[in-house]
Design brief:
8-stranded antiparallel β-sheet, Lipocalin, Beta-lactamase, 3 domains
């Protein structure tokens, strides 16, 4: 148990706030409102399809129309082993959705005059001083809109660190790092940034962030089945999370709390997150008073820099002309999407207890909003189109290599299915039939459209444009000095693999293939479109010249496999 957990559990006055919650009768589902019965029926069909095709253990969903939860239901199992069904009140880890609540806590302190979004963070944390060659101070606004230039993960308490250090230790460890970008010049997603914001909240409120957010945000929002700690009333209904690998392994996820807790440690339910969306539609008013002023909440839903898709805490999206706000969450064993259309006061929550399935959660959530928009306007629902397996003869015709300048794509068959693999960066996704086109459709990807044309394929999605079919070229052998680098690093629950792919040294990390560019010697760099963009990967050699570990940014991955020469 982390130090913060021990402190919190020892604070009995706060703990007793939950006494009534634990005895409450759970609301296992909400029957569809008459306006949304057809929407619910269509989504039931879609979710059952997704559970079957993607082999998801369980799935929970909730739809919101302004102040009403108009449908909520669970599917599959919260725990397949005990056959415990998933319901609308199943507790899940919701990952980065946590950032929304940390941001609300910060903005409460801004309203009270205790914090200023544009004051250097060093005013509140004098001991926070990562190396900053740009000599431009970091602000809270930049931390919560991913514009601070910090590394993605801190050296201590990173996503991979199971030691559960205190938040103070996590933030202090950032002093050993250097800013990757000049503040407010690039949008670079950083869990470390939200951890720093959470530490500021602790310092200004003089209490653990877990405790402050419980009594000042979660409780006033009446999120009675949510907490930033695995308290007894949480673990009693917590789903069992699962992870998977490209080579077909499925295993139980670890349960340790993240060191970057303000960025990812929230436990919650589909119904609680639906209540959060209803609050969002009030403009900041809670059942028992104002939680944030309307103008404060409006500021959070405004881009914090030109062309940015980030508000304060919130992700801001415009897909097919639909303007949405919310956040997704991916954490060991769980995938979540919390999505809303503020102008229409419509929202949806989708959660599954399968790791790296955020694209499934997104696909169901976005489909739900499209259908809700139609029902809300008394229009016919869009046609629900479910993907099907590609005919064998079409698979054979499409197999091959395709290029667009320096970009390349491989399409190949495996176990009677067709897959697409962008060779520059990203992951492997299955292709399935949707009408006359093919789309990426599996746990790891949804929505790239692939259309066969005369000399190749057209792609709409992450690698837009036309790709020309080219002969599969014979790749030159990997440089001999790479051989000792190849292998596995890390831990059973999160393995980093280094290998040669498409004549490039490549890191497979968190389901993404990351081509590496050599900077010098044993130092390599991630591509700009990687999750670790502009950060370095360093091989740390032992006396024999073999890598004993790999450092990704400042996170150390110990070697797992023997060194070959």
């Amino acid at each position: 148990m982390s130090p913060a957990s021990k402190i919190y559990l020892a604070t009995m006055a706060t703990f007793f706030l939950f006494a009534g919650v634990r005895d409450a009768v759970p609301q296992s589902q909400v029957v569809a409102d008459n306006r949304y019965t057809q929407v619910a029926a269509a989504l039931q069909q879609l979710i059952q399809h997704e559970i079957g095709e993607k082999q998801l253990p369980g799935f929970s969903v909730a739809l919101v129309d302004d102040q009403e939860i108009v449908w909520a239901q669970g599917f599959g199992f919260a725990d397949p082993g005990s056959k415990t069904p998933a319901t609308a009140e199943t507790v899940y880890r919701v990952g980065s959705v946590s950032k929304l609540y940390t941001a609300i806590g910060i903005m409460q302190q801004v309203e009270r005059g205790h914090l200023n979004l544009d004051t250097p963070v060093s005013k509140y944390l004098p001991t926070f001083h990562p190396a900053n060659p740009f000599h431009k101070p970091i602000t809270l606004r930049e931390l919560m809109s991913h514009r601070a230039g910090l590394v993605r993960e801190p050296p201590v308490g990173s996503y991979f660190d199971s030691s559960q250090p205190s938040l103070a230790q996590v933030v202090d460890s950032l002093n050993a790092t250097q800013l990757v970008y000049e503040p407010d010049t690039h949008t670079k997603y950083s869990n470390a940034g939200d951890a720093v914001a959470g530490r500021v909240l602790e310092v200004v409120t003089k209490e653990p962030y877990t405790q402050y957010l419980q009594h000042s945000v979660l409780n006033p929002l009446q999120l009675d089945h949510s907490a930033f700690l695995p308290l007894p009333f949480i673990t009693a209904k917590l789903a069992k999370g699962y992870m998977w690998t490209y080579d077909g392994k499925v295993f139980e996820a670890p349960t340790f709390e993240l060191g970057t807790g303000p960025a990812g440690n929230l436990y919650s339910t589909a119904l609680d997150q639906a209540r959060f969306l209803s609050w969002l539609f009030t403009g900041g008013r809670g059942a028992n008073g104002t939680i944030l002023k309307p103008e404060t909440l409006a500021q959070m839903l405004t881009p914090q820099s030109s062309g940015s898709g980030c508000g304060v805490g919130f992700a801001l999206l415009n897909v097919d002309g639909i303007k949405m706000v919310g956040h997704r969450g991916g954490v060991y064993g769980f995938s979540t999407e919390v999505l809303a259309i503020p102008e229409e006061k419509l929202g949806v929550v989708t959660i599954t207890n399968m790791d790296n399935s955020t694209e499934v959660a997104w696909h169901v959530a976005f489909t739900a909003l499209r259908f809700m928009l139609a029902a809300h306007a008394n229009k016919l629902l869009p046609l629900l189109r479910l993907t099907t397996k590609i005919p064998a003869e079409d698979m054979s015709r499409l197999e091959g290599r395709y290029e667009q300048g320096a970009k390349s794509i491989e399409i190949f068959q495996r176990s009677g299915r067709l897959f697409i693999e962008p060779m520059n960066t990203g992951g492997v996704s299955e292709l399935r039939q949707l009408g006359t086109s093919l789309v990426t459709d599996d746990r790891n990807g949804w929505g790239w459209k692939i259309t066969a044309v005369a000399n190749g394929i057209d792609v709409s999605g992450g690698s837009n444009g036309s790709y020309e079919r080219v002969p599969r070229r014979k790749l030159s052998p990997a440089p001999p000095e790479w051989k000792s680098l190849f292998g596995e690093y890390g831990w059973d629950y999160n393995v980093l693999r280094i290998f040669e792919r498409n004549n490039q040294l490549t890191a497979l990390l968190e389901m993404d293939f990351n081509p590496l560019a050599r900077i010098s010697g044993d130092v390599w760099q991630f591509a700009d479109d990687s999750a670790y963009d502009h950060e370095q990967l360093k091989f740390v050699l032992d006396k024999s010249g073999c890598p004993a570990q790999v450092k990704v940014g400042e996170v150390v991955f110990p070697r797992r496999s023997p060194c070959s020469r």
